[in-house]
Amino acid sequence: MGMYREALRKKFREVGDMIRKEQPKYLSGVKKQAQEQSDHKQTMDMVNSPPHYNKAGIETIEAIKAMTDNGFEYYLQGNIMKYLWRYRYKNGVEDLKKAQWYLNELIDVVEDDDKS
Questions:
Q1: Which of 12, 70, 104, 105 is the one with CA 20 to 30 A from 28?
Q2: R_g over Cα of the chain
């Protein structure tokens, strides 16, 4: 039983040494990937055209407009309030710009309704 335990301890030490040698390589890869994602996000327009809101050529806002019909104005109002409420705690100026985007959209909708 003693020999088995000693062999097992030896194997655990070997595996632990291997993991410690590989960990810096893994972590440097993770840091590099995070930096690339951050750089990519900075080049994208996260206010007017965030890529995660356009799948298969359909803008999410257009799908919501089609689904909500008369409730679309309320949807826009809710998003305006959400971004104004959280800008100090989350994304700062970016959230203010998003609130402004939704306000501009609401103005366009109301003006279009007035013309009809």
A1: 12
A2: 26
